[in-house]
């Protein structure tokens, strides 16, 4: 075989592998976006159900808009029109997350409008049965435009989303290794 043909085949092979890496990277990003939206929808369902159960318990009506507000990638505020029993809230959160198979650590806090601060914050691990892992946390920000609300934060959200994409990530890494060893 002439050297120019071999050179062309090597260049074509290298370009093909690079194209495959780009396509895999694109699909990896698309998968991340889909998983992020899926996580957000599941959290919204959980928090809406908790708010509805709280309003039914308190015999109040929920706000018509902005019930669940995503304040950052892992932080949600739930606006309700009545006081909140923190023990009942934790019970509802645990039950609803279990129903939706959302097994992820979370922390929550309840806003007390009489003292104008977030009170009674708890950290609940994914294995909700182990009470010794639950820690109090009062370092959650408050929101001035809400009156009665509770907040929920998922500190390990990125790890949770990454854990569900192991196969895609593995194939991308194998392709990258193939390029490195073929050069």
What this model shows, in words?
- The chain is an alpha+beta fold and 183 residues long.
- The chain has one domain (12-171).
- 51% of the residues lie in helices and 19% in strands.
- The protein has helices spanning 3-58, 86-99, 157-163, 166-182; strands at 68-72, 75-80, 106-112, 117-124, 135-136, 148-153.
- Strands 1-2-6-3-4-5 form a 6-stranded antiparallel beta sheet.
- The radius of gyration is 24 Å and the shape is rod-shaped.
- The protein starts with a helix and ends with a helix.
Mean pLDDT: 77
Q: Assign the structural class, choosing from mainly alpha, mainly beta, alpha/beta, alpha+beta, or little secondary structure.
A: alpha+beta
**What does the main sheet amount to?**
6 strands, antiparallel
Overall body shape: rod-shaped
Distance between the termini: 20 Å
Q: Helical element count?
A: 4
State the domain count: 1
**Biggest sheet: strand arrangement:** 1-2-6-3-4-5
| Count of β-strands | 6
- What's the Cα radius of gyration? 24 Å
Strand content: 15-25%
Low-confidence stretches: 130-140
Helix share bin:
40-55%
Give the SSE order as H and E letters.
Answer: HEEHEEEEHH
Question: In brief, what are we looking at here?
Answer:
This protein has 183 residues and is of the alpha+beta class.
What's the structural blueprint in terms of helices and strands?
Elements: H1 3-58, E1 68-72, E2 75-80, H2 86-99, E3 106-112, E4 117-124, E5 135-136, E6 148-153, H3 157-163, H4 166-182
Helix pairs in contact: 1-2, 1-4
